[in-house]
């Protein structure tokens, strides 16, 4: 994946207004199941995003537990959980409208 303004090509990435980095699953012990945990999102949440888009992979193999969605909602953040191509398109549309949006994207399965 390519992020505008960044020379790095990512396999999995975290993005927020003005920044991005590799999403290294080893940092939090993430696997396809149980999937995305609040610890995976904390960094992006702390950037002050109002909406967070989660890309589950091309075949949607990456799970997103209800507890993770609840964590975001408790923090006043709207969340969208989508197949990665759709997630990227939604992220780009929101960012173009000036929404304070962040995302975590799994690019493969």
Can you offer a commentary on this structure?
By secondary structure, the chain is of the alpha/beta class. It has helices at residues 38-45, 66-74, 84-96; strands at residues 12-16, 19-22, 51-55, 78-82, 101-106. The chain is globular, with a radius of gyration of 12 Å. It has a domain at 12-20 and 48-108: MTH938-like (Hypothetical Protein Mth938, Chain: A, 3-Layer(aba) Sandwich). A 5-stranded mixed β-sheet has the order 2-1-5-3-4, with helices on both faces. The chain contains 3 helices and 5 strands.
For this entry, give a set of tags.
109 residues, alpha/beta, Hypothetical Protein Mth938, Chain: A, 5-stranded mixed sheet, 3 helices, 28% helix, 23% strand
Give a short overview.
One of its GO terms (biological process) is positive regulation of fat cell differentiation. The chain is of the alpha/beta class.
CA radius of gyration: 12 Å
- Give the CATH level 1 class of the domain at 12-20 and 48-108: Alpha Beta
For this structure, the CATH topology of the domain at 12-20 and 48-108 is Hypothetical Protein Mth938, Chain: A
Percentage of residues assigned to helices = 25-40%
Q: Give unreliable regions as ranges.
A: none
Helix/strand order: EEHEHEHE
Intertermini distance: 14 Å
In what order do the strands lie side by side in the largest sheet?
A: 2-1-5-3-4
Major β-sheet profile: 5 strands, mixed
- Class by SSE composition: alpha/beta
CATH architectural name of the domain at 12-20 and 48-108: 3-Layer(aba) Sandwich
**Average pLDDT taken over every residue:** 95
The shape is globular
What proportion strand?
Answer: 15-25%
Q: Could you give me the name of the CATH homologous superfamily of the domain at 12-20 and 48-108? A: MTH938-like
Can you count the beta strands? 5
Number of helices: 3
């Amino acid at each position: 994946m390519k992020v505008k303004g960044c020379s790095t090509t990512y396999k999995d990435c975290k993005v927020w207004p003005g920044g991005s980095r590799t999403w290294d699953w080893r940092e939090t012990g993430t696997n396809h199941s149980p999937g995305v945990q609040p610890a995976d999102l904390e960094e992006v949440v702390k950037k002050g995003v109002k909406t967070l888009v989660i890309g589950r992979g091309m075949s949607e193999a990456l799970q997103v537990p209800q507890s993770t969605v609840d964590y975001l909602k408790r923090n006043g953040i709207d969340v969208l959980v989508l197949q990665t191509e759709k997630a990227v398109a939604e992220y780009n549309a929101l960012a173009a409208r000036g929404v304070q949006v962040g995302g975590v994207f799994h690019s493969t399965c």
